[in-house]
Amino acid sequence: MTRRDPELRPIPLIGSRTEAELRAALVRSRDALRSDPEQGRLLDAVRTVCPTLRTACVLAVTPDQGEDLYLVLVDDTALISVELDRTDPEVEPIVEPLSLVDYARDLSRSGRIQLAVALDLARQDLERAP
Questions:
Q1: Angle subtended at Cα 60 by Cα 58 and Cα 61, rounded to the nearest 5 degrees
Q2: Contact by Cβ (8 Å): 104, 10
Q3: What phi-psi label fits residue 82: left (phi over 0), alpha (psi between -120 and 50 degrees) or beta?
Q4: Which sequence spans correspond to the domains of the chain?
Q5: Are the beta carbons of 112 and 22 closer than 8 angstroms?
Q6: Which regions of the chain are under pLDDT 70?
Q7: What would the 3-class secondary structure string for 60-81 be?
Q8: Contact 103, 63 (CB under 8 A)
Q9: Residue 58's beta-bridge partner residues?
Q10: End-to-end alpha-carbon separation of the chain, Å?
Q11: Which pLDDT score is estimated for 56?
Q12: What pLDDT score does 28 carry?
């Protein structure tokens, strides 16, 4: 029987162009969450399960027929799935915490690089935060 590893072990970053491009996109995502009024519903939804949120960035957005699905990394410890109704802002969002370890286990190499960059960015933000 094999033992399941409960730890998240992101791949090491090497300073590649791909990493730089991903970092720039994640910084834009983080900054939009902080300052774009249109992202307010998403941020409010995330705060329902992570009220002490200090930094966050959107890892993925999947538009669906009547809603948008977001995958948000919060700080460097939480992964949150949020479903927002696109047509009616009064509809309560569906918010679910996900296992970061389980999510990482199923990622492709490019997805693992994106997650490693996002975690690094979150850790830098947390170190700078008062």
A1: 100
A2: yes
A3: beta
A4: 17-123
A5: no
A6: 1-6
A7: EEEECCCEEEEEEEECCCEEEE
A8: no
A9: 72
A10: 45
A11: 97
A12: 97
